[in-house]
Design goal:
By secondary structure, the chain is of the alpha/beta class. The chain folds into two domains: 225 residues, Rossmann fold; 57 residues, no CATH class. The chain is built from 13 helices and five strands. The chain has a five-stranded parallel sheet. The longest helix is centred in the middle third of the chain and has 24 residues. The radius of gyration is 20 Å and the shape is globular. It starts with 10 loop residues before the first helix and ends in a 6-residue tail after the last helix.
């Protein structure tokens, strides 16, 4: 029996350690056919980090030899897209930004995340690149992408960003001026510089997740090439769990005598998300579902909600 992936956000770990994975790989071909630059927003704890991690291993050229192992029995194993394992992945995770600090400290935290992403790229693809850590994050990404352009690499870069707006809500709760200074300054310039190299053909694809559309609206003039698919009905349940996916999951981990009761409990408490006014299938918050099932797996009973 597969284990419940509560708190697991690394796709490779999830597969290798035999955790249950709800197949969402059928959406990859749809994403490739929409646009090269995409934003996809969902509430917190919906499964965005795991989805972007899955994308990382699917598109990374260095993970090509792992494809059969990591995607066995999933939709893409029989229906691979033309862009499978064909990119250098530049991955940024902004979930670690400390949003409760002062402006300067938030900007430094943002820069630290950019440095981690660039360093991972350098190490993973054995790029000989040295740079100053003392320059602003927006200059840092511009100089790095300019250097990559000069290398004339065989493949393009796929930029994947998780929690692009992690600091937004906390800033707005206390100080709107703080938000404006940060987002319309360094952050806006950071994305504007990425836009330059999308147009130059260095960056072939861009995909970013987050929670709040306010940041996206605030930096639109700097990054007006992106398509927001958050309310596109075709992607209503790309992240999160449908009713059928929950039922299938229950068959795997819950004793038959408890399935109906637990399912009804989830419907009453976790069901209710629709991200398009014409959508009819409501979506469950994946983390909350896994939390309940993780407790059940340990104690063979469900925790009262």
């Amino acid at each position: 029996m597969k284990k419940i992936p509560y708190g697991i956000i690394n796709y490779k770990t999830l597969i290798e350690e035999n955790y249950y994975y709800v197949d969402k790989t059928m959406y990859l071909e749809k994403l490739e056919n929409i646009s090269d630059t995409l934003f996809y927003l969902r509430p917190g704890r919906f499964g965005k980090s795991l989805f972007t991690s899955m994308m990382y291993y699917y598109y990374d050229i260095n993970s090509k030899s792992l494809f059969n192992e990591l995607f066995k029995d999933l939709y893409v194993s029989k229906n691979p897209t033309k862009e499978k394992n064909s990119y250098y992945i530049l991955n940024f995770d902004f979930s670690g930004i400390n949003e409760n600090k002062e402006n300067k400290e938030i900007i430094e935290s943002f820069k630290a995340c950019v440095i981690l992403g660039i360093n991972d790229f350098i190490d993973r693809y054995n790029i000989n690149y040295e740079y100053s850590k003392d320059i602003p994050a927006d200059d840092m990404i511009k100089m790095f992408l300019s250097y990559i352009k000069g290398l004339n690499l065989e493949h393009k870069i796929y930029i994947i960003i998780d929690e692009y707006d992690n600091f937004t809500n906390a800033i707005l709760e206390g100080n709107a001026d703080k938000f404006i200074k940060i987002v319309t300054g360094t952050v806006k310039s950071f994305y504007a510089n990425i836009k330059i190299y999308v147009k130059e053909g260095v960056v072939g694809r861009f995909f970013a997740t987050g929670i709040c559309p306010i940041t996206l609206d605030s930096m639109t003039t700097g990054f007006n090439i992106a398509t927001d698919i958050s309310t596109d009905i075709r992607f209503n349940s790309m992240i999160g769990l449908t009713h059928q996916e929950v039922k299938d999951l229950l068959k795997e981990v819950v004793e038959e005598k408890d399935r109906e009761e637990i399912y009804n409990l989830m419907v009453s408490n976790y069901d209710g998300y629709l991200f398009n006014e014409e959508a009819t299938e409501r979506v469950f918050n994946a983390t909350l579902v896994m939390y309940l099932l993780n407790y059940y797996e340990a104690f063979k009973k469900y925790q009262k909600i």
